[in-house]
Design goal:
1892 residues; alpha+beta; 5-stranded mixed sheet; 41 helices; 17% strand
Length: 1892
């Protein structure tokens, strides 16, 4: 009735009641629209408000520091109500767009840019009147909260916000009802899926939109719900059409489907069906109608238009092709479709065909090749779609290759078809395999053959075209590969990284607290903003830390007042993030506030399965590992679908033909190849489906979690009683040990072992059976000494996982079996079982673990503490097998037991079987001692000590009454626990009556214990004297064998350590670390620049280690500083601290700027920066070792040369050993003064009995391997100890100060002192070094019981060395010998003295010689013996071999050089072996080469020491018989005979020297070889000539007489005979030369020297006279006499002038010449010929090359033309000379520089200058210019005077008087004539014959 209502009201009243209506205005403001929409939505959703979903906070809603944007709840300015003008109509200037009222209900349809017409506005704004049945009810009062805020809409603005005012609607004119009274309509119904009654949900929603959304979610629809139907099929469009609590059907867009349709149809068929004779007759209603093909509108439109199918690819790809139906005339629409179908990131812009041509019109697109056409409708393409980049031929090449393969396949089939047609035509039907051909007639066969030939021709042509296109495209591909990405990106403009248009994607991280994997927080990081203004990675990382610190993500829930500061960020594998760019989007990270990474995961063993495929490439098989495709596991979830096989299953391998595929397979083999011998799983229904099982370590997953894992129980293992560890998912598989041995590195140590993998279960296979030990370790039965070990690799952490050598690249190693590790590394060998089955919860309660962590984590272990299986568990056990499990049993010290109560243990000897012989031994009670030490040290020292141990854990320091912690004693290297252990072993030594001191302790399982902490009361332990563990279950022989070998190996270990310590050289005093106070003083090798450069650098500290170290220093620096301060300084410091504590916090931080402390990470931990800077430890620069080794000795101080204020000193002298430190110089401290004595001691001024001493290195000869490690003095501390007064054994107290260099040399003493010192430290008996020589050494007097002949035990006092006394301690009474007592250790002669073998050696006492030259030889000998004995299994043979070693006998010899006789003094040498004696002879005799042979006086070669001893005894007997013969037969005339022999020898020696020389030459020819030194010309001559004349009977008679005389005399013992040195002659390989002949030759040389000196003296005298005569003539200056001659040329001559020699002078000159000639002849006769030793070339050990290098020059030319040539024969030298010199003819003759022709190659010496000729005689070398000048003059003469000008013959008349030929040789050159009749007076002086 709106019309009637309007007729009753006048227009005036309407204007009065409505201040703002559609008739008065045509616009609505945006503010009004917003308010109306808000009120409308509030009305609809007031009663249907639901809980708001938790939506993650926006990353951009954080409060900015400079504004309140994003944090205020105030109403925006755009939504405020502005003040209205006075009139109800707005001004015409403020026109706004028109908005229909319908857009208020649905704001999504509003578009402010859409114009509205006036007519539309007027019609749509018709106001409806209120019906009469609903009168307005006015209320007298209304609350203020219910008033409308549209008061400016009201007509009367003067009333304001009155509670009595009645609001009117701004659009309808009606009064507005209060919104809280309007109840919204709620849809309540039961919703079903369309066509189904199975899926249903009850839905209550305020609107249809919300209703459809809820139905989509709750019903699980695949698409959004769009339509709603009632149960009668009527569609619902409005919420009011749905009755309450009704049933509706929700559809995603399809029509209504009756859910009861199938039921109704079945009922109809059941009721209407009739039985007939032909069967059941169904009614017409129930019959299924035939499906009619109905074409959709879209398909009809496609068929009507000219649309075609086009195949497209992305540019550069041939994968994921898309088929697009497009109009050929609309390319733009086609590009849009390509963009959508291919999923391009931007719009497609260009199209290319397969030749690279751009397609601008789709009609130009090529048709798909008929070989790949499918169906009747043609397909165009393929086309490649580009975003604008250039054409990429890579994808086209792959497509063309695919097309070529397809055509080749068709061609092959066509050829085969053609051949079979030919067979059919040729009556060879047995070869035809196609049945269709057999049924064809002949005419059809001919037509088919033509078609087949035509098809073959077409395919061949197509294949050729494809090949041509492929070659063209490959050229383009090479261009693309050469240009790289620039080839395709030429259209894109390149911008720099810092360009403003280049943006960076931010990071979204999932942040966890360190050690937690729950309650992840999403964190957003603006990476572009962080990189703004800087490119430094550290600054960007700092900004990330700051954002994490200020964000609520890292809020501290425990103490919210403390603002945490993020220091480190880790990934899931514990790797610290040091570069922000390494982070990925949505990556999980863990934040740390300075503490190290705490792993939030629990890792366990997991069985992983991946696909394995076999390939056969060129005859070589490859097993390739590929990721598992979940499609392969469908319908194969259980183990019954798989069959395990050892080795790859046998079936046909894939054989790829394409070379590219083969190359790809070979590339895969380099990365993921598997071993064909491994275990595999093969699907039973598909033999080609093969899986490769592998065990790895992965984080433990929850059962039934969201993580996809196949199989679901891959991490669950089943442990059986027989020792098998089987996989629950695949019970046919179990863990086993393979035969593959690998080497791994864990930390800094290397280990090796066998790989553990998954194998097929085999019954009785010991490699698959495991034994669970009580210490949470697992051992394989096949390797009982090896323990299952986890190597630390984690699945997914490929960067840290190490791949050992020897494995194929596809295999990974996570578990191995190796030797048991030490305590620090034992966690990798501990495992635990986590049981989580619901049917047997609480199984962990049955474990026997004493460690509470096992109970907290609910862990189980299959065995009890005694090693037996725990039957309380439900067997077989099932659960997760965890790695790195905690210790199963904690030591007693950690179980809360306080104090050190004495412990009683049942002890037995090592290897003892009878447990009834166990002796109870009670340990010492050290509780009071430990408490006293705690009280003395107080809290400060205890805190420091425990902080050093617990530096990484924040554990409070225990109280002083808690004596559980181990405390060091006054000696640095011993603790209270160590003292308790030593005292316990001492008690065991006496109670068990051990032969040596007890040193090692084992429990009943063979585990060695180093303290009593882990032992319980009445535990059975075994005590040994140093030997290894002997299992009492072994046989007696095996135990004895182990004991003997262990004792022998320990003795050899002592020898090895002694050798490493016996000769310390170049050790200097050095400051450890840096040059600061309280630095230790040590000794180290002398600094050398080359060695320092070659030494490996110290690995850098990790950031975690450095942070821990800084934290510890920051905590303890105050206490460390107080120790070095005076009381005055400490008082000042503590007063400043008290004053600082009284300040307010803002007073402490008032002077600290924001930038300070940025460089120091510890500065923020302290409130007072000034105090921190004052007392923090200052960084110390690194100083060279050269500076640290230089000292200055001045004023009694030993100061650093670089800093004289730092000197050597001792803080406090307490005890016998005090540490020497570097301290600040104090004049009043006497402990800093030193006295350097001449004997090498550096004494303290405080006490003259205290000297600087080198602390010997820790001696550990009884380590686990029992091999002993070589010791070194590098790094040994320098201490202050009591001075030793013995001569030997104090080498570590000897020093030498070098004032020039500043070095202080240690061990500056003789080698003997060093050896005794090293022996005392290495537990070596000094008898092995000094033997029976009595030396001044430290020792003890031992009272040893000796069994006498009367069966009475007598006490005998013997002297023993320090090492033997240490071994005898606790068994015999020992008393220290007085200082400077000389003795020899009696243990070296224990057998001789009939003493029990109880020295320092176990089995080698007195059997080794460790002197200077014998030590290394002895060690090598016994090491070889030990290796041989270890292969021996018989105990008696081993004991016999050791006992057969003879006692070492040291022999003295007097060594001479072979060939020198006794001309030089011999060297006294002591040795016990031939090798040692030879090495000493080489050194002491100064031989040029190593000594090799030893001869006795009679020429006997000595090969063994026994031979030398036997010869000495025989020689002694022979000499004794000679003396007896002289005494008995009265040979008193021996002296006369000797004198007569001497005269005869002198007479023979005085003969002519020619006879002596001839005799000497004869000797040399007879004995051509020489020895060493002078006179080594001939070897020994054997027996003398006299013995050869003696008859054999007479010799026998003489021998009988000598034996009879010898039998009458008592021969002294061998030791007495060997007291005197034995004369021997040492040779480097030459034969023996008797000393008698050497003496004879020396006498002959003296005589020849005397004869030669007489001639030389006479010659010197004549020369002197000749010089005097010449001098007097020259001094007289006689002018001479003139005499006339008849010569016309020289009528007058001068005679007897001062220039002419006189006759006497000439005679004297002739005499001198004769003497020189005679002396030369004498020297040549007496010259000794040196005979070279011939080399036997038949040995073929080394053949000397005959190649020689010489210099040659042409005959008659200058030497400057000489060149080098090489050759092995004379002909080769001539050939080389012809080529090198460029001769015009062949060189034929070789001359030496003397002009002698070289006939043989042996006459040529290396680097000799030779002359080569082409056949002419020798011409002396001349200058080349002279020859050229002569030739030039000769040519000029012939040219000027004719060819006969050079043919001249010179003839001169003979002078009848002088008879001298002017062109002949001079007269003196002619031989003298005997019948010279001419007068000498008439001859010239130059022609006089020589005087005779």
């Amino acid at each position: 009735m709106p019309g009637r209502r309007e007729s009753k009201r006048s227009p005036r009243s309407r204007e009065e009641n409505l201040a703002f209506s559609k008739q008065n205005t045509d616009m609505v403001s945006y503010e009004d629209l917003l308010i109306a929409q808000y009120l409308d939505e509030l009305r609809k959703t007031k009663n249907s408000m639901k809980k708001k979903k938790e939506v993650p906070a926006s990353p951009y809603s954080q409060k900015l520091p400079h504004s309140d944007y994003g944090m205020s709840n105030r109403r925006p300015m755009s939504a405020t109500v502005p003040a209205r003008p006075g009139s109800g109509r707005p001004s015409s200037g403020a026109r706004k767009p028109k908005i229909d009222s319908k857009f208020i209900a649905d704001p999504s349809l509003w578009d402010p840019a859409t114009p509205r017409s006036e007519s539309t506005t007027s019609t749509s704004q018709v106001r409806k009147g209120r019906p009469a049945s609903a009168p307005v009810r006015r209320k007298t009062s209304r609350p203020f909260s219910a008033t409308s805020n549209l008061s400016w809409f009201y007509r009367n603005n003067t009333r304001g916000w009155s509670a009595r005012s009645t609001p009117y609607s701004a659009f309808t004119g009606r009064r507005i009802r209060s919104q809280y009274l309007n109840k919204p309509y709620t849809i309540r119904c039961l919703a079903f899926k369309n066509g189904s009654r199975e899926s249903m949900c009850r839905v209550a929603a305020p609107s249809m939109k919300v209703f459809l959304e809820m139905c989509t979610d709750r019903l699980g629809l695949g698409f959004a719900a769009r339509r709603v139907f009632l149960d009668n099929g009527k569609e619902v469009f409005d919420a009011y059409e749905i009755p309450p609590d009704s049933e509706v059907y929700v559809s995603t867009g399809d029509n209504f489907k009756d859910p009861y349709r199938s039921i109704k149809q079945n009922i109809t068929l059941t009721n209407g069906a009739k039985w007939t004779l032909s069967g059941v007759l169904l009614p017409e209603e129930g019959r299924k109608k035939k499906t009619k093909c109905k074409v959709s509108k879209r398909m009809r439109n496609l068929l009507e238009n000219n649309r075609y199918r086009i195949l497209v690819y992305r540019n550069g790809y041939t994968t994921e092709p898309m088929e697009i139906v497009a109009d050929l005339g609309n390319i733009d629409e086609f590009l849009v479709a390509c963009t959508a179908k291919l999923g391009l990131t931007s719009y497609a812009k260009q199209l290319y065909d397969w030749e690279g041509n751009e397609i601008k019109d789709l009609s130009d697109a090529p048709t798909l090749h008929e070989a790949v056409q499918e169906g009747s409708s043609p397909i165009y393409g393929p086309l490649w779609v580009s975003l604008g980049e250039a054409f990429s031929p890579t994808g086209t090449i792959h497509y063309i290759k695919y097309l070529r393969r397809t055509i080749k396949g068709h061609l092959k089939e066509a050829v085969k078809y053609k051949n079979e047609v030919n067979y059919a035509l040729g009556d060879e039907k047995e070869k035809v395999t196609i049945t269709d051909i057999l049924s064809m007639p002949d005419d059809e066969l001919y037509s088919t053959l033509e078609l087949a030939e035509q098809e073959v021709d077409n395919l061949t042509e197509s294949l050729q075209d494809i090949e041509d296109k492929l070659q063209k495209i490959e050229g383009l591909q090479k261009v693309e590969e050469s240009e790289g990405s620039h080839y395709r990106m030429k259209h894109i403009k390149e911008w720099e990284f810092e360009h403003r248009l280049v943006g960076r994607k931010g990071l979204r991280l999932k942040v966890y607290e360190n050690g937690s994997y729950e309650k992840d927080q999403v964190f957003y990081f603006n990476l572009a903003g962080a990189l703004r203004g800087t490119s430094d990675k550290e600054k960007v990382l700092t900004r990330l830390f700051d954002d994490l610190s200020t964000n609520h993500v890292t809020a501290n829930p425990h103490n919210p007042k403390i603002a945490p500061v993020v220091k480190k960020v880790f990934d899931q594998f514990g790797k610290e993030i040091t570069n922000v760019h390494d982070l990925e989007y949505d990556q999980e990270v863990w934040v740390s506030f300075g503490e190290p990474f705490i792993n939030p995961f629990t890792y366990c063993l997991q069985a992983m399965f991946e696909k394995a495929t076999g390939y056969n490439v060129n005859g070589e098989t490859f097993i390739i590992r590929e990721p598992l495709n979940m499609e392969l596991t469908k319908n194969r979830e259980t183990y019954a679908a798989w069959e395990a096989s050892v080795g790859y299953p046998v079936y046909d391998y894939e054989q790829p033909i394409d070379p590219e595929v083969q190359s790809h397979i070979q590339d895969l083999a380099r990365m993921s190849r598997l071993d064909a011998r491994s275990t595999y799983l093969q699907a039973k229904n598909d033999v080609k489906t093969v899986l490769y099982p592998e065990v790895n370590c992965f984080k433990k997953l929850k059962r039934g979690g969201a993580t996809k894992q196949w199989p679901s129980d891959a991490q669950v293992w089943t442990i059986q009683k027989n020792g098998y560890i089987r996989s629950k998912a695949m019970p046919q598989l179990c863990l086993g040990v393979s035969d593959t041995k690998v080497d791994l590195t864990l930390g800094k140590e290397a280990m090796s072992g066998f790989v553990v993998n998954i194998q097929k279960k085999a019954s009785g296979n010991t490699y698959q059976q495991w034994q669970f030990n009580p210490d949470a370790t697992i051992t394989c039965l096949a390797h009982p000494n090896l323990v299952l070990t986890y190597n630390g690799n984690r699945f997914g952490d490929d960067d840290e996982n190490q791949q050992p050598e020897g494995l194929l690249p596809g295999q990974s190693v996570y578990l191995i079996v190796t030797e048991k590790r030490q305590k620090k590394e034992s966690s990798i060998q501990r495992f635990a079982l986590k049981q989580e089955r619901f049917d047997n919860l609480g199984q962990w309660k049955y474990n026997d673990a004493t460690n509470k962590e096992w109970s907290k984590k609910a862990l189980s272990w299959p065995v009890k503490e005694d090693g037996n299986l725990n039957e309380d568990y439900d067997w077989p056990m099932e659960g997760f097998l965890l790695t790195n499990a905690p210790a199963l049993h904690k030591p007693l010290s950690k179980l809360g037991i306080s104090g050190m109560a004495p412990l009683r243990l049942m002890t037995m000897k090592n290897g003892e079987r009878d447990t009834r012989l166990a002796m109870p031994v009670v340990g010492p009670n050290l509780t009071n001692m430990l408490k006293d030490l705690n009280k003395e040290k107080g809290g400060k020292s205890g805190k420091k000590q425990q902080h050093s141990k617990l530096i990484e854990k924040d554990i409070p320091v225990p109280e002083t009454d808690n004596v559980e912690e181990d405390i060091n004693l006054h000696c640095v290297d011993r603790t209270v626990r160590g003292l308790e252990f030593i005292m316990f072993l001492d008690n065991c030594t006496s109670l068990l009556n051990l032969p040596f001191a007890a040193r090692r302790l084992f429990d009943g399982k063979g585990n060695e214990h180093f303290s009593l902490v882990n032992l319980r009361r009445d535990d059975l332990v075994y005590v040994s004297c140093g030997e290894g563990w002997m299992d009492p279950k072994l046989s007696k022989d095996q135990q004895q064998r182990r004991v003997l070998l262990s004792q022998l190996s320990q003795d050899i270990a002592k020898i090895r350590q002694y050798i490493s310590l016996r000769n310390p050289e170049k050790y200097m005093l050095e400051m450890e670390g840096n040059m600061v106070a309280n630095t230790r003083i040590i000794i180290n090798r002398q600094w050398n620049l080359e060695e320092e450069q070659t030494l490996p650098r110290r690995p850098p500290q990790t950031e975690q280690d450095s942070q821990i170290l800084q934290d510890s220093r920051a905590t303890m620096f105050g206490e460390e500083e107080e120790e070095n301060m005076t009381c005055h300084e400490i008082a000042h410091r503590r007063s400043e601290q008290r004053l600082n504590n009284l300040k307010w916090p803002w007073e402490r931080l008032i002077n600290v700027s924001q930038d300070e402390g940025g460089d120091d990470p510890n500065a923020y931990k302290f409130t007072d920066r000034e105090m921190y800077d004052k007392y923090k430890p200052q960084p110390v620069p690194k100083i060279s070792r050269d500076t640290l080794q230089r000292f200055v000795y001045e004023d009694g101080y030993i100061a650093c040369s670089a800093n004289r204020t730092l000197v050597l000193g001792v803080l406090e002298q307490e005890g016998r050993v005090n540490q020497v430190l570097l301290v600040k110089r104090r004049p009043d401290d006497i402990n800093q003064r030193w006295v350097i004595r001449e004997n090498g001691e550096i004494r303290s001024k405080h006490s003259s009995q205290m000297v600087l001493t080198v602390a010997m290195p820790a001696n550990e000869p009884f380590s686990e391997d029992e091999e002993g490690r070589p010791l070194t003095f590098s790094g040994c501390a320098v201490t202050l100890q009591a001075r030793k007064l013995n001569m030997y054994g104090k080498a570590h107290q000897k020093w030498r100060y070098d004032a020039e260099t500043g070095y202080i040399h240690s061990f500056f003493t003789n080698p003997y002192d060093k050896e005794i010192t090293a022996a005392n430290h290495a537990d070596i008996c000094t008898y092995a070094i000094s033997h029976d020589s009595k030396i001044n050494q430290p020792g003890y007097l031992a009272e040893v019981p000796v069994q006498s002949s009367s069966d009475k035990v007598a006490i005998k006092n013997i002297t023993v060395c320090t090492s033997c006394a240490r071994a005898m301690r606790g068994r015999y009474k020992l008393q220290k010998l007085p200082e400077r007592t000389e003795f020899s250790c009696a243990m070296g002669e224990a057998k001789k003295l009939k003493l029990q073998q109880s020295g320092s050696f176990r089995v080698l006492n007195g059997k080794v010689d460790l002197s200077t030259h014998e030590a290394e030889l002895t060690m090598e000998t016994w090491e070889d013996t030990l290796e041989k004995l270890r292969e021996e299994t018989n105990v008696r043979a081993i004991a016999k071999e050791i006992n057969a070693a003879k006692t070492v006998k040291t022999i003295k010899i007097l060594a001479y050089k072979n060939g020198e006789g006794r001309m030089h003094q011999g060297e006294l040498i002591c040795g016990s072996s031939i090798e040692g004696i030879l090495s000493q002879c080489t050194y002491k005799l100064g031989l040029a080469s190593a000594a090799r042979k030893i001869f006795t006086e009679d020429g006997t070669m000595v090969l063994e020491m026994d031979d030398l001893i036997d010869w000495a005894v025989d020689n002694y007997k022979s000499l004794m018989v000679d003396q007896l013969e002289k005494i008995l037969h009265g040979k008193e005339d021996a002296t006369a005979d000797e004198e007569e022999d001497t005269k005869q020898s002198n007479h023979q020696n005085n003969k002519a020297p020619e006879e002596n020389d001839s005799q000497r030459e004869g000797d040399e020819l007879e004995h051509p070889e020489r020895g060493e030194g002078e006179g080594q010309d001939s070897p020994a001559d054997g027996a003398g000539g006299e013995n050869a004349e003696v008859d054999q009977q007479e010799q026998a008679k003489v021998q009988r007489e000598r034996d009879q005389l010898l039998s009458q005399v008592q021969i002294p013992p061998v030791d007495i005979i060997l007291r005197y040195p034995i004369e021997v002659w040492v040779s480097s390989g030459q034969e023996f030369f008797p000393p008698e002949k050497v003496e004879t030759k020396m006498e002959n040389r003296k005589k020849r020297r005397a004869f030669r000196s007489a001639v030389s003296l006479e010659l010197d005298m004549e020369k002197h006279i000749l010089r005097q005569m010449k001098g007097r003539r020259l001094e007289s200056q006689n002018p001479g006499e003139y005499r006339a001659t008849r010569s016309s040329k020289q009528p007058v001559i001068v005679e007897n002038n001062w220039q002419e020699p006189t006759v006497e002078e000439q005679l004297k000159h002739d005499t001198v010449h004769k003497l020189e000639t005679h002396l030369a002849e004498v020297k040549s006769v007496q010259k000794e010929k040196i005979h070279s030793v011939s080399v036997n070339t038949n040995r073929r050990l080394y053949q000397q090359p005959d190649m020689k290098r010489v210099m040659v020059f042409p005959n008659g030319e200058s030497v400057e033309r000489a060149v080098y040539v090489w050759g092995e024969t004379l002909e080769e030298i001539l050939d080389s000379a012809t080529i090198k010199l460029g001769l015009w003819g062949q060189a034929k003759i070789v001359y030496n520089m003397e002009g002698k022709k070289v006939e043989k190659f042996d006459e040529i010496n290396k680097d000799e200058l030779l002359c080569v000729s082409m056949g002419k005689s020798f011409s002396k070398p001349k200058n080349s210019l002279d020859g050229i000048e002569i030739k030039a003059n000769w040519g000029r003469a012939r040219k000027q005077y004719g060819p006969n000008a050079t043919d001249l013959v010179v003839s001169a008349p003979i002078n009848p008087t002088v008879n001298v030929d002017p062109f002949g040789p001079p007269g003196l050159a002619l031989p003298p004539s005997d019948d010279s009749k001419s007068n000498t007076a008439n001859r010239p002086q130059s022609a006089k014959p020589p005087a005779t």
